[in-house]
Amino acid sequence: MKIIDLEPGDPRLIDDLLPVLVELRPHLTEQLFRDIYAEGHPQGLRFTAAYDADGRCVGAAGWRIVANTCDVRRLYVDDLVTASTARSGGVGHAVLDHLEAKARDAGCTLLDLDSGTQRTDAHRFYFRERLVVNAFHFGKELN
Predict the structure, then answer these.
(1) Which residue has the higher pLDDT, 27 or 135?
(2) What's the pTM?
């Protein structure tokens, strides 16, 4: 498996990563993804893609390093998805390892993510990967 951090303007963002990301975020269109990345990149948003031995993108992660008063510096994972055709094959583990190494290199004290309460399969995976539930996340939709 090959894991690559993709830079803005890299055609693999749209051609390879977006189809995998849409499995988790079905509301994303190509244009909306471009718009979000154009706004999010200056705020620290980055994307990582995982490729199998045949060169197919089988995993995607959106992440950012955030400085805050709680943890000083954390790597926050916005998105973590393995293509449905590649689940249970070690892709998620490999991508998390890659992100953990990035976090350690950047002096982060925490690798952090949120997961919807309905995503029980994802929760089992996170527990296997030794992530813990260390907070409640509260939100209020603003329409």
Answers:
(1) 27
(2) 0.92
